[in-house]
Amino acid sequence: MDVKPKSKEIKTAHLIAYSSLIIAILYAIHLFLVLDDSVIKQLLSNSGQKTSENAVGTIKNSFQFTGIMYILANLAGIFAIWNRHSYLWWFMFAVFASQILYNIINISAVYRAILDVKTSLNLLPLTLVLVMSFVLGVYMLIVSIVRKSTFNR
Questions:
Q1: Rounded to whole angstroms, how far apart are CA atoms 132 and 103?
Q2: What is the Rg, in whole angstroms, of the alpha carbon atoms belonging to the chain?
Q3: Which pick of 35, 103, 113, 123 has the fewest CB atoms within 10 Å?
């Protein structure tokens, strides 16, 4: 049995680890810098709802609570540097897939509200998170099919 991990396995693990760290940082920027009270108020007014302070706080807390869970889940990908277990592989795949599905639900309303209040540069963090999550998810699926295993085990 081969004790030393193979080069492909290490490169794949590092790609997943560093990419998930970048995704976590970009998603934190989106949640805590881009999605402020003015964007949430615009989101509510675009949908025809009252923009009370309670409603703004509730929606902002909802976005941030779920977002923190995704940030922590993405940060779990850093463990791929040291521990390349197949459970981690499928956990990260599930994180990338569910993050895309969660954000795609409100994407047009959130983008419209950000564009109404801020510049188009503020769309970049969330867009990069979605694109990187999609690319990594597809990459992980293809690698697991081609190698017939995860992390080349």
A1: 13
A2: 18
A3: 123
How far is 55 from 48, CA to CA, in rounded Å? 13
DSSP 7-44: HHHHHHHHHHHHHHHHHHHHHHHIIIIIS-HHHHHHHH
> With contact defined as beta carbons under 8 Å apart, do 97 and 137 qualify?
yes
Residue with tokens 């902002």: 60
Q: What letter would DSSP give residue 128?
A: H
Mark residue 123 as left, alpha or beta (left: phi above 0; alpha: psi -120 to 50; beta: remaining).
Answer: alpha
pLDDT at 134: 97
Tokens 């003015």 belong to residue: 38
Q: Could you read off the pLDDT tens digit of each residue along the chain, which spans 153 residues?
A: 444 557 877 888 889 999 999 999 999 999 999 999 999 999 999 988 888 999 999 999 999 999 999 999 999 988 887 877 778 888 999 999 999 999 999 999 999 999 999 999 999 999 999 999 999 999 999 988 887 767 655
Measured between alpha carbons, how far is 35 from 125 in angstroms, rounded to an integer? Answer: 11
**Two tokens at 51?**
């923009």
Residue 151 DSSP class: T
